[in-house]
Predict the structure.
Amino acid sequence: MGGRFGSLYYMGFFDSIVSSVQEAVDDVSDPGTSAELQQVFENLGADKVIAGIKEALAVAISEAIEITGKTDGFLANELIKIGMPAQVRPFTDSMRAAGFGGLVDEFELSMNRAAEESAPLARDVFVTTIRNMTVEDAEKIWRGTDKQAATSYLNRNCSEQLTTSFAPKVTEAMSRNQVTKVFCDLVDKVEGIPLVAGILKGVDLESYTVQQALEGLFKVMGEQEARIREDPAGTSSQLLHSVFSRQAFKE
């Protein structure tokens, strides 16, 4: 993993979450904690568990940001590419047939560029959310059968905060990429196509772009987490292999 995001390990980017995970581990002797989790912590050692969770989260989040937060990170990825709003898509062919294909493409390009510029802004919110992780959260993330458990946890617990934090930044990126201008140009051009202009005018452009940017980020993060869980040895990290390997839980 290269670039400025690949250097996050060495910058200690996720050091700020260690204390919260340590507190969760310190609570493992509480009578309410499952005996199985206590045994696993005892077998592996609390320090290794803390470091493993830290590194797994660092890998998934850093790689997701690196993948999405660059030119064509959204646009060239069909899984997360931001297209026309759902309510307008049935009319896309009509708009292209009427000669407005260039404007449609320009509009989609502008939204994807705004999402790409905004993606790296998610990291601080993720760190804040991870700080509030409980031992029960850690157990679900670590031991659950869901290969995207950590991503799901972050999605549940920080989507609202991410939306709030993203909105002004996405608005700035949209302005730089002239999303609203292109959108207005498109609305003006399709006035003659029945229903289309009215539907377009009803689109909350900022909310749509923010939502699509976040959904794309979480999709890529989920893919990265699943990859780590399926093949922890493939990360070249002995730590991840030890903590996430099923064999480690049985030793």
